[in-house]
Design a protein that fits this description.
Elements (H helix, E strand, L loop, with lengths): L2 H14 L5 H92 L3 H26 L3 H14 L4 H26 L1
Helix pairs in contact: 3-4, 3-5, 4-5
């Protein structure tokens, strides 16, 4: 029943009823209070339902909005991850190039610190030629072994023709040859 018809019925019953007895007034008051409570309870229930629906709609909106934000954040994280991987690859490439460059510098330093092999060989050749000249000079001047000295000078010229000591050996051979010719002329004259 609806509230209005119940109220009308009660009013009609009041009019038709003999004079109110105090108990009837109390019952009437109790009924009206009960009706008022029911009405208030219905309105409260409807208001609560509306609040729940509004909150649910708000939560759903927030959830949809949150889902969209989460998807955006995930997309951005993927982009950042790709960028960081590309940057990392580039950094590794640069570091590898830097390591190669440092190794190249170290190798150049090592090479620069090594003695010049060509110069060292030239010095060894020069020393060997000098030793041959010195030995030939010893044979000729100190031991008076002219033939052995001549062989030493010729060997020096043969082994090291462009060396400065070979030039001195040629001069010594010319000197020996001149002395020999002088000795031969003296021997022919007598």
């Amino acid at each position: 029943m609806n509230d209005l018809s119940l109220t009308d019925l009660l009013k009609q019953a009041d009019l038709a009823a003999p004079a109110a007895v105090p108990e009837t007034a109390a019952i009437e008051l109790a009924v009206r209070t009960a009706l008022r409570r029911r009405r208030t309870a219905r309105w409260a229930a409807m208001a609560a339902a509306l609040v729940v629906l509004a909150v649910a709609a708000g939560v759903r909106t927030v959830q949809v909005h949150s889902d969209a934000r989460i998807a955006e954040v995930e997309r951005r994280v993927r982009e950042l991850n790709e960028q960081s991987q590309a940057t990392l690859a580039m950094v590794q490439e640069v570091l590898e190039g830097q390591r190669r460059q440092e190794r190249l510098v170290r190798l150049h330093e090592e090479l620069d610190s090594m003695p010049d092999v060509h110069a060292q060989m030239e010095a060894d050749i020069d020393r060997s030629a000098f030793v041959l000249l010195y030995q030939a000079d010893q044979m000729y001047r100190e031991l008076n072994l002219k033939e052995t000295a001549v062989e030493g000078y010729r060997r020096l010229i043969e082994l090291f023709p462009q060396n400065r000591w070979a030039q001195i050996a040629r001069e010594r051979l010319e000197e020996i040859d001149k002395r020999q010719k002088t000795v031969d002329k003296k021997g022919d004259v007598s």
